[in-house]
Amino acid sequence: MSLVSLPAELLEAIFEPLSTSTLVSLARTSADLYASASRLLYSRVSVSTYAHNLSAVRTLATRPHLLPLVRSFSISLVEGQDEVDETYFAMLYQAIRGMENLTDLEIHIDASLSWVLFDKARSPDLTHYPNLANFSCSFPLDVNVARFLEGTPSLHSLQVAASPDFVILAKTAIPFLSTYTGPACLLPQLLGSRPLTTLFLSGDLAPEDVESLAWTPNVPKVPGSPEPEHGTTRAAEMSRIETLSAITSAPPVAVIAALTKACPNLTSLRVITTCAFWETPDTTFYGQIANALASLRSLGAFELGGMQWEFRPKSVAPADMCHEKEWLSPPVSPRSADTDGAAAYDSDYDFENAFMEWGY
């Protein structure tokens, strides 16, 4: 049995481990192998300044039969280092419009070029990407990005750039969005009708932004999600945020306390503070943070300003019988000795030496 007589699925399984150069050679070998080799060659396309493969955009734009093969496409250009003009970006626009089977799209080019996603002057028709799940770009939420997102009904992950100016996204757009990376100023319109669980916030998280996390009305129930436990508060029932990372210039104690109330179901929290401390944080400062964290029953990881915190059972009872946690910070909560009973908490410790025992 010759190689060309094998089913296409088997050929692709054989070709999958091969290098790009080998696949190119196979595609040129015979017309019978061209289809299988091309499907693998163009399923994932990554264009970048450093890869020296900017010509791939021209290839895709001039060979539209290849565009439906692309499942993942990324482009990253360094401003000032690439000799590209508007003609090049017009070809990029044309190529993206033809990639209707995309599942992943990443575009990092000049922020003023968002028209490569949607350009009403070139074509008022909206292109639909029914399978697109992940989209990352260097553009803010402008009119072109907003219109593009209206054609991505299956999007789960979105990353946009920060900007003081933004447009209002259609309420029916990206209904299944679960992960968001971008400025906090977009939260009020994103949380209203989308099942967001993961937030990586850029820019400065202001107290009023925290307030927007506390209420997420009209969020559709995700198929398969458990019903809220009897006795849970309305805030706990409504808030779906489980992972949150943010930067804030506000006093961290106040922000963390507000976050614990707004997002009671957090499992992972990372807060980077740029607040100016005129005095060195003392045990009171860390104690207030630990007390705020104690209200998050599901929290399993916390980091403040690059300092990793740990937790231990609050009770001296066996770990499997204790459900409350005590959060510890290295400078003020040295690791207790492995002793039984409350005496372990009453002992005097050498803080300086105890701090050196902490591992990161």
Determine Rg (CA atoms, Å): 26 Å
Percent of residues in β-strands: 15-25%
- Structural class based on helices, strands and sheet pairing: alpha/beta
Low-confidence stretches: 219-223, 227-237, 332-347, 349-360
Q: Spell the H/E element sequence.
A: HHHEHEHEEHEEHEHHEHEHEEEEHH
Number of helices: 13
Tell me the distance between the termini: 58 Å
> What percentage of residues falls in helices of 4 or more residues?
25-40%
Outline? elongated
Q: What is the average of the pLDDT values?
A: 81
Strand order of the largest sheet: 1-2-3-4-5-6-7-8-9-10-11
Number of strands: 13
> Main β-sheet, in a few words?
11 strands, mixed
Protein described:
The protein has a domain at 1-41. The protein is built from 13 helices and 13 strands. The chain has helices at residues 8-15, 20-29, 31-41, 55-62, 86-98, 143-149, 187-191, 207-213, 234-238, 252-262, 283-293, 343-346, 351-356; strands at 44-48, 72-76, 104-108, 134-137, 157-159, 179-183, 198-204, 243-248, 268-273, 301-304, 307-308, 310-313, 325-328. The strands form 2 sheets. It has an 11-stranded mixed sheet with strand order 1-2-3-4-5-6-7-8-9-10-11, covered by helices on one side. Strand 4 (134-137), helix 6 and strand 5 form a beta-alpha-beta unit. Helix 2 (20-29) packs antiparallel against helix 3 (31-41) and helix 4 (55-62) crosses helix 5 (86-98). The longest helix is centred in the N-terminal third of the chain and has 13 residues, at 86-98. The radius of gyration is 26 Å and the shape is elongated. The model is unreliable at 219-223, 227-237, 332-347 and 349-360 (pLDDT under 50).
